[in-house]
Specification:
Shape: globular
Number of domains: 1
Strand content: 15-25%
Order of helices and strands: HEEEHEE
Radius of gyration: 14 Å
Strand order of the largest sheet: 1-2-3-5-4
CATH class: Alpha Beta
CATH topology: HIT family, subunit A
Number of helices: 2
Largest sheet: 5 strands, antiparallel
Structural class: alpha+beta
Distance between the termini: 31 Å
Number of strands: 5
Bound molecules: guanosine-5'-monophosphate, zinc ion
CATH architecture: 2-Layer Sandwich
């Protein structure tokens, strides 16, 4: 998947601002932050969208959320609250087609989201 931006980060061809990493997931700062802290948590295996998650990926998806909570704890806003959200396809505004969990914190969040 050499044309995938996030796969290039995983391969080390592009260096993101990494905040947390395991064998299975990578977490790095979003280049266009929408909150004081805006981190993307991605699986190291290429999965394009939520619709492409398979039953073989269920443990991996759990690890994305474990990493999100770790990022929130490290950033200091786990208890006050934060948002962890995944956009799927065009109408939700997905622009990078490698699964990513947005972790947004450090400000009040609105609901419903825009
Ligand atoms: P989506 O809109 O697909 O849910 O989110 C894609 C996110 O990737 C956006 O928030 C965008 O700012 C971020 N992004 C796009 N290109 C880059 C990049 O080169 N580096 C980093 N760190 N984030 C990026
Ligand atoms: Zn990819």
């Amino acid at each position: 998947m050499t044309e995938c931006l996030f796969c290039k980060m995983i391969a080390g061809e592009i260096q993101p601002d990494t905040v947390y990493e395991t064998d299975d997931v990578l977490a790095f700062r979003d280049i266009n932050p929408q909150a004081p802290t805006h981190v993307l948590v991605i699986p190291k295996r290429h999965i394009a969208t939520i619709n492409d998650i398979g039953t073989e990926d269920t443990e991996l998806i759990g690890k994305l959320y474990l990493a999100a909570a770790r990022v929130a704890r490290d950033a200091g806003f786990a208890e006050e609250g934060y948002r962890a959200v995944m956009n799927c396809n065009g109408r939700a505004g997905q622009t990078v087609f490698h699964l990513h969990l947005h972790v947004l914190g450090g400000r009040d969040m609105n609901w419903p989201p825009g």
